[in-house]
Amino acid sequence: MLMKLKFPLQRFLVYFTICIIGIVILNHFSAAIIHRTPTIAPLLFPILTMFLMVFHAMIAAFMVMKYSCDKHRLYLTPIAFAFAGSAILMLGTLDSFPDWFMCTGLTRVNYNDTLIFYFFRNIMMAFLFIFAVILYAFKKREMHTFKIHTIILVGILLFTLGMLLLSWLYSSHYELLSVDFVDNNTYQFTQLWGNQLGWILIALWVIALLAILVVTQLNNIFWYSGAFFCACYIFTLIVLMSSGHSAGYTWYEARLFETISTMFLILVLLCDVFTLYRQSNTRYMHSYQNSIRDPLTQLFNRSYFYDTFTALMPKVATGQPISVIVSDLDHFKRINDKYGHLQGDKVIQFVSKVLQDSVRQNDVAARIGGEEFALLLVGASSDVAEGIAERIRVAIASQDAESSQSQLPEPITISMGVFTATDLTVNVEECVRRADEAMYRAKEAGRNRVVVWE
Asked: Per-domain residue ranges for the chain?
């Protein structure tokens, strides 16, 4: 039944294992730092908030860049606005620590405003994460038009601005709107936070997590990281609600845990970037090789042969000769007519393998015509080039159907012409023309031979 529904059980098991191990390690690390350095814990909170603000701004920029590269990833825009809005709300959080800016300690802290910004930040991010999953579910629908994208982006922007405005108004900046999450005199959490709103935030993040698991089925590392991020925020809220007041260690521990988990998310996103780069580079290299290789033989093509020859010609001025060998199969038309073009292709592939195995790594073996081949031998004198050509000729002429494992239907021969460039007075085209002329002299002299241009 599981196979029929294609339920990704293995992915979910991996995810839950990562969550359990990751959260336990991060929580232990956070608790160890806070409890071993209790004197700096209050000062650490605004510092961590600044780091978290920078991290969220980085993630928002990353999402925007990914969307700009591929407009079909519209689902990234709500996440970008979520982290951008979160970074802005953290400025309000820092404003709740006025003494910290003046470097006079932390005698005045508006913990209620801090929790108000935290509350609206979680509301905004959870809703935008859910909306991102909804857009992901419809990513293959006909919705990728400029008009639809504009409407969605404007809607997300208005929602984000609305959350920013509400958080600002409720946080001691507008007398008609106020809410008490923390008593700033006793630092105790109110019943409104402990019994109602805190659990609402947890429920929202649980919905966001379930939406990611059900809709995306964790089919790539991006959604793995998104689901892990939701789990971390759920755990952060549970840690925060486990304490009855805002001045306890859990308050600072929750912020440190949130910061470290965000750093982990950035690391995962960087790994995603590296993976995409590697895939893109692989595709580019594959595409480049296809552009310079002959598809039948995988030898270099005519264009690459001439480009490389032109690039190597300056070596001749330093006293390093370059030899060109142009070759053509004898009576190849008869092979095609008698055995068919499929067998003819096998013959060409067999000869190409012999040519490739007969040259050095820095030499160039190319197919420049139907049954015509060319070799570019760097640093090879005329005598050396003639010897290589003769060795290739003998290797091909000595094969038959049995020794070639049926790639050759019958023995076949090749005619080869050699020309060696020793100065720059002869250009590339003329070098190839002279080697080609020497090859035709070999044809006229009876085929199955090597002729050096004189």
From this structure: 2-288, 302-452
In one-letter notation, the amino acid at residue 122 is: N
CATH, domain 2-288, list 2.30.30, 1.10.287, 1.10.150, 1.20.1070: 1.20.1070
- Biggest CA-to-CA distance, the chain: 109
Beta bridge partners of 415: 328
Residue 344, amino acid: G
CA dist 76 and 132 (Å) reads: 7
Dist CA 350 CA 364 (whole Å):
17
Tens-digit pLDDT profile for residues 59-86: 999 999 889 988 889 999 999 999 999 9
CATH code of domain 302-452: 3.30.70.270
Instruction: Kindly give the pairing relationship between strand 450-452 and strand 414-421.
Output: parallel
pLDDT classification of 421: cutoffs 50, 70, 90 = very high
Say if residues 156 and 77 touch (Cβ distance below 8 Å). Answer: yes
Residue 242: pLDDT over 80:
no
